[in-house]
Amino acid sequence: MNSNPETAARWGFVLNPTAGNYFAEKYLEKLKAVIKTKNLDAEVRLTQYKGHGTKLAEEFYNEKFNRIVAVGGDGTINEVASFLIDKPGVKMGIVSAGTGNDTIQLLGFPNRFEDKDWDIFLEGNTVKIDTGICNGKAFLNGMGLGFDAHVAAQNYTEDGSVKRKGGDKYLYHILKTLLTYKEHTFKILNGREHSESEYFMSTIANGRRFAAKYFITPEAISDDGLLDVCLVKKIGLLSRIRLFMQVPSGSHLSDKNVEYFKTDSLNIHFDQKVPFHLDGELFFDKDLSVSLKPKSLEIIYNPYGKHYLTQKTQKIL
Length: 317
Fold this sequence. Notes:
This protein is 27% helix and 34% strand. By secondary structure, the chain is of the alpha+beta class.
């Protein structure tokens, strides 16, 4: 019997076999081997359609599983987290098997687990983080409007299925959208403050990093009860390129075209439905109501690695 006390828990794994261009389907055998080797009390259930991850998380919770793990990409993570918010007595885990990796790296784990990563993961160290809510849907890392939403839209076919994401393909979509994107005008109401303008990009975040290396909201802390908002006004091509070069270091905050503030809620209005993303998952709407649930999700993280989480544990300052 494994002496690690966390292995005495009941582990429910929600695996999306189509994630990562079917990498997750191949990963199933590895997961079964881990369960056997670590002597876990565990079950693996596969998603069969969009939204099924939420239902499976609910089933595990009702059956008294107290460790519920999303195995997949951004969509699977979002579906599982959406149910587990404000659920007492359960820890959420994430094992990346998709092409998106921002949320897993927020927690200090690599995009692909090695044996040593499983050992740390099964220790079950947790932190309670805030969760963002937009029109009733949850996000852990952040949401985007404008430029980055249009980049995300390049990863979807007309019927809503996901194309290949990640790596060089993502960089290609960024460069293409830099050249072609047309700004939208929209209204933002933040408490008593109101603004209306054309924005190139708008990010509302609980985490700091996007697309693996872009620190769009470098001051974000995932347990401070506030969302970080980064607005980039309408800019020309040269300014877009300069911004693209500044964001990896977070130095864009000093740019005159960038507005940055913190809030616990805001409302956004467009004249027509536009794309926006929640943790990389694409949606369309014209009126967005965004709020925050403080410390509402207990999630497994790597306390020994480089993560981007809380006031007490942040490692990049």
